[in-house]
Structure formats: structure tokens, C-alpha cells
Amino acid sequence: MLISLLREGFKDYLKSNWHYGNINLLKSIKGIIKKNKFVNLYLIELSSIEDYKKLEIKPIFKERKKFLELGEFVTKIELERFLLISEATIRELVAEGVFNPVSGPEIDKNQTRIYQTKELYNFFLTLDSKVSSEIINVTSDLVSFSSARALINCHYADFFNYVFSSEITIFKISKKDEDVNLNQYYFLKNEILNKVKQEINGFNIIELGSLLGVSRQSVQNWIQNELFTYKFHKGKKVIRIKDVERFKNKYIPLVHIPIFNKNDYRNTVKRLNEIGICPVSGFTKDKGKGYLYVKQDIEKICGYQLNW
Predict the structure, then answer these.
(1) pTM summary value
(2) Which domain holds residue 291?
């Protein structure tokens, strides 16, 4: 006799007959029951199998069992445990689109927000795919995921997005058990403190002045003139490295022009003006401390490409 079977009613039986309990992810299950002393036979509808395939949960890394045991949804508390983060950080990640809460079913009266297990699984799967190698022991030149984020002192969402979209060396600690959390993953401390920190946090005005070989006042003036785009980090203006590269490709300060004479910079400015090359910023333009020119204009008179 064909009947509809509720998943909760027979999942324990199915879990014992389907490796890792994958059957729990099937939907709209119907079956035929043949009862006798020893036999229970179940036929699963093809539509349910197709639904399962669309979940694209592929058993690639060894901790997959933990996710498959969770069922279709995870709660906020489970998300906090896997990611080692607070409720406030989850809200930040949701705002950035890293995770997306789904509506119902409400599986706990105190947990109104739930998330797809698939989304959490894919998060770790993506992270696992970027691992360079597994390690047995943690050395002093390595830092865990949480420690790396703390060293950079940036928002979690910024760090997550960077790790998933950029080239970065990641190691994974080899564990006997199948517990899963972010601190299984380690980074090179030196890479975190230099390359990653600069690319995520950017440079403040003093750091950028030192990098470009100009004064802090010059940088401030260029920001005010909207020649630099900036963001706020911990209440201070910072310029990201991609914006620094964009600036260097478009402009060049007087001090980096080959014909510049530091003992007679006024004459250099005058000579450039005489051939129709005027500064986009500088004392004669906006009373700025440092003169700034369009790089392409300077390259025309030099006859070659400038890299500064």
C-alpha cells in the first residue's frame, strides 16, 4: 500500500542503512512498507533523489559527516559554534551577504533565525579548497584563523571576504576527530602582518605619505580634492592598496619626475607650465604642499613609461 511517510518517523532506520545519514536531506519522501518479522522495504521517489542532487553536497573533506548529521538547517547558536564568533558578528556577516537567514520552520522557540546547512558546508568547503597542506604541529610562525583576524584588527566580514577572494597561504591542522571549527586553519604570521593587513586595512595618512615619499599634508590635500578614495577604519581615514595603485597609475608627484630639481623646484614647475603641463594639485593650484601631475602628461615629455 502506497503511503506518505514523515521523515522524522523513520529517519533513525534510514540513517542506519544509508552511509552518513544522507537520507535525512531527502524531501517529500514516499514509500511502500512491507511488514513481516524481519523485513521493512522502502522505495524513494525519484523526485526526492533529484532534490537531493541539487543540494550539491559532495563528500570531499573528511569532516563532511558533521554537516550531514545536522539536517537541512542550523541555528544561530550552531553557527556561532562552528565559526567561533558572537551573535553580533553573525549580524555583520548577514549584512555583508556572507550568510543568509531563512524563514521557518522554527525549530526552537528561542531561535527564530535559522540558516541552511548547505551554506555553512560550502563555506568550509571553499576554505578547505584553498588549503596548501595539512600540518601535524603548529609552529611559532603560524597563527590560527581567529588570531589572524585579531592581529589585523579588522571586521570579520572583511577578513572572510579577503580569504575567499585573494591569494593567501592556508594550512590545516590534522586532527583525529571530525570536529569542525575555524581554528583548524592557520596562516603565516608574517604574511598576515604585512601583505594581508595592508590589503584589508589599507594605509592611514601618515603611512601613505611615507609610502609615496611626500608629506602628510600633501596626502590630506589630495584626499580633500577627491583624488584619493578612502574608507573609515576604527574611526580613521584609510586608503586601500587598490586605490593606491589606481592613484599611482594616474598621477605622479613632482618629487618623482625625472627632471625635478629639489634645489629649484619652482623652476621645474615653471618649465612644465611653459610647455602646457599644469599641476592638478600644488601651491599654485590649490595651495597644496606637494605638486601633483597627470602621469600620462609627464610620460609624453619623457618619452617612456614611468614607474614610481
Answers:
(1) 0.60
(2) 205-302
